[in-house]
Specification:
Radius of gyration: 20 Å
Number of domains: 2
Strand order of the largest sheet: 3-2-1-4-5-6
CATH superfamily of the largest domain: Dihydrodipicolinate Reductase, domain 2
CATH topology of the largest domain: Dihydrodipicolinate Reductase, domain 2
Oligomer: single chain
Shape: globular
Largest sheet: 6 strands, parallel
Number of strands: 14
Helix content: 25-40%
CATH architecture of the largest domain: 2-Layer Sandwich
Length: about 350
């Protein structure tokens, strides 16, 4: 690459936006040239706009502190400075859809962490190790938008990352049903314990919209392109419950699975640990060397010990056992703001660059 691609971050002052800021520090392919947020923050330096709301465990990078925050609605000004944008806006979905469309129509690719366009038929929703081929729907989307280089691509919900990749690795054994309970960190709600002290020592058995996402988004990831649209898969029925738990980072899933075929434990473990995708095959900068690892200890994976496996981009699995009602059961763990949010979007952007969909202006 002759020069780094210029990146804008929409919603840069929020928790996921802050994670994008940290991930872009010293990135070999990308450099941040614009940060944008609501009118409330516009005109201030990034450090002033964030104030005491910096939520990352590492310090605010020096490169961003004195950057002037732009208004997200000033599309022409922002797009003049960037080759593509990451979207981490925290707004009503209809407003996010409108803004993402405006940037795409301004010939600026949008790689979004938001759910607003996840079910737009010609918008690819991608975990790069699983369904990078869905990016092939982009030419159809560009035709609809009337663009030559602008488009929208999204990553799926953070709650599915700790079990959907495992089920994908097991597709040759034909899973038919899965019951999944997720135990989700408070950072998934954009919170820390400082913001949300009532979560200490507490469990909330409801997260709005999360169970539908957990049951339906894997089916879209496993789907196929037909007549310029993504058609979701059928054949695997998923039911879920999603609980908010007093953990800062890391979503844990307890899953029970039935199969048409009769795999052994050894076959299941081998399928997980050997599972690779486009990011590994093309040695992308943010790709984990090992996407899924299996842990043999009875008390693993644990959030405190294992959430940062492969810089937070890998998935840890343990407690794979035969079940008295289902065929097999396991526990999975993923980092919700890295693999599940900003890091997953960065990996999508790297894949899009490698495939030629994102280029310098």
């Amino acid at each position: 690459m002759d020069r780094k691609l210029r990146v804008g971050i929409l919603g840069a002052t929020g928790m996921v936006g802050q994670r994008f800021v940290t991930l872009m520090e010293n990135h070999p392919w990308f450099e941040v040239t614009a940060v944008a947020a609501s009118a409330r923050s516009a005109g201030q330096t990034y450090e002033e706009a964030v104030g005491g709301r910096w939520k990352m465990e590492t310090p605010m990078p020096e490169y961003v502190k004195n950057m002037t925050v732009m208004n997200i609605t000033e599309v022409e000004k922002v797009t003049a400075l960037v080759d593509f944008v990451f979207c981490a806006l925290n707004m009503p979905k209809d407003q996010i859809r409108e803004i993402e469309d405006l940037y795409a129509k301004a010939e600026t690719p949008v790689v979004s962490n938001n759910s607003a366009n996840r079910w737009t038929p010609d918008v690819p929703m991608v975990v790069p190790e699983i369904n990078d081929s869905h990016f092939d729907v982009i030419p159809y989307q560009r035709k609809r938008l009337g663009t030559t280089r602008g488009f929208i691509a999204v990553k799926p919900n953070c709650s599915i990352q700790s079990y959907a990749p495992v089920l994908t690795a097991w597709m040759k054994f034909e899973p038919t049903e899965a019951v999944v309970t997720t135990y989700q960190a408070i950072s998934g709600a954009g919170k820390t314990f400082k913001d949300w002290p009532e979560m200490e020592g507490n469990v909330i058995p409801f997260i709005s919209g999360e169970e539908e996402k957990s049951e339906q988004e894997p089916l879209r990831i496993w789907g196929h392109i037909e007549n310029g649209e993504i058609v979701k898969a059928e054949g695997v029925k998923i039911t879920s419950q999603c609980l908010r738990v007093p953990v800062l980072n890391g979503h844990t899933a307890a899953a029970f699975v039935n199969f048409r075929k009769n795999p052994s434990k050894e076959e299941l473990i081998d399928a997980m640990e050997s599972f690779r995708g486009y990011p590994q095959e093309h040695n992308l900068p943010s790709a984990p060397k090992q996407f899924i690892r299996y842990m043999t200890e009875d008390d693993r994976p644990q959030v405190r010990l294992d959430v940062n496996f492969e810089n937070g981009m890998g998935i840890s699995v343990g407690r794979l056992r035969e079940d008295s009602i289902f065929d097999w059961k396991f526990v999975g763990l993923s980092h919700n703001t890295l693999r599940g949010a900003a890091g997953g979007a960065v990996l999508c952007a790297e894949t899009l660059v490698d495939k030629g969909y994102i280029t310098a202006k």
